[in-house]
Please model this.
Amino acid sequence: MKYQVKKLDGRYSHRKYFKYCAVFQSNDYGPLHFNNVLKAMITTYGYSAEIRDWTHIQKTHHNRKLYNLTADNMPDVVNYSWSWSNGYGDLRIYFKSDKELAFFKLKHNET
Model:
């Protein structure tokens, strides 16, 4: 399986929530590998919304709580362990911490 792990720093907009991402090529077998990993992450950690929806839901929920419009918990589609992105030419899996990244690497060899 071919992917590249990147540590999220100041160049990445989702660094506030996640520490790493695995980037898959958008050609050849990249989409197949990405979707196999996506399926495995859902099985392991439960469903998570796509990163753009994830951040939108979280911000909207936070603003509602800020104005005392609701007191309920964060919707479960905002999974703090991981998220993903499949924009044009952008196949990524985001990981919260070293723990999630280590488990991912154990299951999926980087070649």
